User: Which sequence fits this backbone?
């Protein structure tokens, strides 16, 4: 769950739940190796991949000396080893040194083109490892990956397939794919079975929705959000054209929530906190 700042809940002396440990560096390293191998395989013609398979068979037969049966599992594992050698993938020690520097940089908002006054920045340190964040709109990919770099589990949804595929590719490049998922959905209809602690909404992604579908999507997100959870509606994107849906147009959907507006301008977005005592739907039974 999100940790509230003392200034937000003066005098509150509730028990803070123990933090869940983030994924180990060994796990992240294995994910990195597997991703690079799969990328290489996907870029090879079938004939060349078969040649690597033949090479793996020859090497295994030369070293096995009939001590074990050559199985498909052994063959696939050796193919991966051959590809790893071709790619000259780093050892765990070398990868760890570079990875730590990369992750430190990624936890700075400027790495993603965000300034320190961005409304999402204060929430990153309040997330516990493994907290679920839902991001609405691929235009908020920088915010999504910034939060993933802080050990949150980020689930991004968008209606555009190309935007989702580009988001997945960026996550792989940034070595954040293990903490990031993206899915194409039709807003206002079905929604994944999620129970987020934090929801980030890029208002421009809702501009083309009809009023009914927009209301249905926001109601779904609010019902699924944990008690005490937070929705951050981002500032409107800069544009020379008339903005069809400004952040303040969504405030009417947050009656009963604690809304905090940005001091910059009405178009700078707002933050809404779900009342801790507000009854959740049956989704919370599984918590």
Assistant:
């Amino acid at each position: 769950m999100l940790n509230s700042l003392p200034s937000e809940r003066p005098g509150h002396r509730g028990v803070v739940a123990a933090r869940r440990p983030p994924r180990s560096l060994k796990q992240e390293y294995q994910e990195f190796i597997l991703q690079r191998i799969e990328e290489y395989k996907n870029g090879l013609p079938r004939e060349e991949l078969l040649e690597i398979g033949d090479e793996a068979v020859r090497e295994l037969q030369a070293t096995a000396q009939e001590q074990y049966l050559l199985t498909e599992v052994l063959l696939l594992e050796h193919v991966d080893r051959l590809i790893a050698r071709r790619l000259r993938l780093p050892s765990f020690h070398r990868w760890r040194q570079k990875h730590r520097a990369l992750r430190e940089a990624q936890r700075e908002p400027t790495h993603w083109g965000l300034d320190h006054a961005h409304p999402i920045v204060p929430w990153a340190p309040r997330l516990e490892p493994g907290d679920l964040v839902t991001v609405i709109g691929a235009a908020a990919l920088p915010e999504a990956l910034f939060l993933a770099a802080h050990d949150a589990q980020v689930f991004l949804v968008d209606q555009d397939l190309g935007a989702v595929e580009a988001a997945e590719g960026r996550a792989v490049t940034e070595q954040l794919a293990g903490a990031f998922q993206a899915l194409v959905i039709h807003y206002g209809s079905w929604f994944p079975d999620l129970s987020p602690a934090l929801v980030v909404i890029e208002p421009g992604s809702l501009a083309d929705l009809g009023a009914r579908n927009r209301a249905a999507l926001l109601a779904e997100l609010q019902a699924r959000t944990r008690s005490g959870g937070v929705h951050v509606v981002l500032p409107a994107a800069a544009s020379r054209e008339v903005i069809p849906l400004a952040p303040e147009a969504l405030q009417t959907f947050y009656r009963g929530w604690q809304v905090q507006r940005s001091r910059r301008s009405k178009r700078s977005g707002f933050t809404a906190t779900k009342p801790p005592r507000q009854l959740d739907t049956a989704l919370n039974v599984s918590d």
